[in-house]
Amino acid sequence: MSNIVVIGTQWGDEGKGKVVDVLAETARFIVRFQGGNNAGHTMVVDGEPFISHLIPSGILRPNKVCLIGNGVVVDPGVLIEEIRHLRDRGISLDPDNFLISENAHLIMPYHKLIDHGRERLKGDKKIGTTGRGIGPCYEDKVTRRGIRFCDLINPEIFQQKLSSILGEKNLYLKDFLKSETVDKAAILEEYLPYANALRPHVANVSVLISQAVKAGDHVLFEGAQGTHLDIDHGTYPYVTSSNTVAGNACCGAGIGPTQIHGVIGMVKAYTTRVGRGPLPTELHDEIGDRIQQKGAEFGATTGRRRRCGWLDMVVVRNSARINSLTGLAITKLDVLSGIENLMICTAYRYKQDRLTEFPSALGVLEECEPIYEELPGWSEDITAIQDVDDLPENARTYVKRIEELVETPVQIISVGPGRNQTIVLQNPFGSI
Ligand code: GDP
Ligand code: IMO
Ligand code: MG
Q: Could you say which of 3.40.50.1000, 3.40.50.800, 3.90.170.10, 1.10.220.10 is the CATH number of the domain covering 267-424?
């Protein structure tokens, strides 16, 4: 038995959904532990794309159990829509294979209005959130005013909690944000049917994971976002509102750190970012546009164009330390085919200094200039390659250089969006 966490090392969209779907072949339980439907994870199976926002990316495989941990914030309407969509496409989803923690917090209509209202008020200084109510929901969780799934499935408690919070929310919405307000009866009318639909799926997820571990099943923890969007370790305030790092797999699922045996850091072969905030290696030229187009870099949740830049190893090394990575999964290597010379950022120039560690102060980061190392590119199409030895020599050198700079072994190389376009050098679950 081993339990593995998959997290993003950059600013999200590294291909976590794809790699989780690949690794789910070996795992029996797949668990989301933070974030919400700000995430958009894409899997492509037999040419068919599936995008999941809340349901773990193991759901496409038979005989797997997918769990939403207590650390996730769940918009029940979005979840029900996602369940319906998957069922329409022939995926079975019932309480045998999909469960939600009774401690997971609910995204409420006022969270979404607050998210939008605040962004509107901030004008140029907006974060560029996904507008899904993620920050305001986590805020209520931390200030102990949140509503959880165990409350939702008990109509009396749900009504009480709602009544106790609505006065304050409406005052804030109306007077401060100059936004529309919410109505208790309308929320009850919307949410009570959600309670009925989801009640059979609500469970004690921590207990289920503990039983799985005892039974010797492999558990795969699926991160959302990326380390540089982490509320503590990211480019604050241009971050999301949860801890996206591997350590939070424990808090967000209800398991102790001694039960985690490996952490896979997802590294896109270049860098992207959606929304605002610094991106030191951002390209504002033809190569940036080419990567954006070839990589189809549009947000899976909001459809926004992703900003693109060269691979930033200051960022990836920062993630290796914070997450104690045991392996790397490199994705989208195929997107770099045809670029004559590739740049890897190995340090930053800040005024007269050479920085090798990621700076915390936003003002410093904004003034950092990347220091690049140049590597020769390759022109071959690599999307059908199944064996690392068949990769062009320069592609192998690129991968090797990443491995050297992070001092962590590359275990997976992805050369296309499809499940089969994956070179597994070493299965993180070990030999099974
Ligand atoms: P996630 O949020 O980390 O799961 O990543 P997203 O799904 O938001 O974005 C990754 C995008 O790249 C998706 O459209 C994937 O289908 C696609 N993708 C994943 N791996 C590869 C790869 O190796 N090559 C190419 N060309 N596309 C990939
Ligand atoms: P996956 O799991 C990329 C970004 C938003 C915004 C910031 C805060 O698909 O990698 P939020 O709505 O969370 O308050 O927005 O975080 N963001 C993501 N960027 N991938 C994601 O998820 C993201 N989830 C949030 O664009 O900049
Ligand atoms: Mg995504």
A: 3.90.170.10
Domain boundaries defined on the chain? 3-101+202-262, 105-198, 267-424
Q: Which residues, judged by CB distance below 6 Å to any ligand atom, belong to the binding site of ligand 2?
A: 8, 11-13, 38-41, 127-130, 132, 134-135, 224-226, 229, 240-241, 274-275, 300
Going from the Cα of 67 to the center of ligand 1, the distance in angstroms, rounded, reads 22
What pLDDT sits at residue 431? Answer: 55
**Residue carrying structure tokens 């020769």:** 376
**Average pLDDT, rounded, for the chain:** 97
As its CATH architecture, domain 105-198 has Orthogonal Bundle (1.10)
Alpha helix stretches (DSSP H) within 174-215: 184-198, 205-215
Within 10 A of 418 (CB to CB), how many other CB atoms are there? Answer: 17
Kindly report the pTM of this predicted structure. Answer: 0.98
Q: State percent of the chain over pLDDT 70.
A: 99
Q: What pLDDT, in 10s, does the model give residues 303-333? A: 889 999 999 999 999 999 999 999 999 999 9
- 3-101+202-262 has which fold? Adenylosuccinate Synthetase; Chain A, domain 1 (3.40.440)
Q: Give the separation between CA 71 and CA 89, rounded to whole angstroms.
A: 28
